[in-house]
Design goal:
Blueprint: H1 7-14, H2 18-35, H3 39-51, H4 55-62, H5 66-73, H6 81-90
Helix pairs in contact: 1-3, 2-3
Length: 105
């Protein structure tokens, strides 16, 4: 009988690819802003951290304590912007800004 992976296992495997992780984070941030719920983006960052080696590896790369880093990314955590930026950098990613091309009526 064929063994199936869970969605989470599939997602983590896909997020090992930096292009996939980047697209996932972008979509998650857009959804979080639309829903006015940054926990959506925070969950996406946790998924990328898991895919890129886990809390311990990324915390070590950031030179922060594993436990405090884990707490900041938990569902009850409130990570600072600097923490999110350091986390993305440790995962080999960055945020890039582009001007909006809004149509004027």
């Amino acid at each position: 009988m064929k063994k199936y992976r869970s969605y989470k296992e599939y997602l983590i495997e896909r997020l090992k690819d930096p292009e996939e992780a980047s697209a996932y984070l972008k979509a998650s941030l857009e959804e979080a802003l639309e829903a006015d719920d940054m926990s959506i983006f925070q969950l996406a960052v946790r998924d990328v951290v898991e895919a890129q080696g886990g809390i311990a590896k990324i915390a070590a790369a950031m030179d922060v304590g594993r436990e405090s880093f884990y707490k900041s990314l938990s569902s009850k955590g409130k990570p600072r912007f600097a923490t999110i930026m350091q986390t993305l950098k440790a995962c080999g990613l960055e945020i890039v800004f582009h001007p909006l091309h809004l149509e004027t009526a």
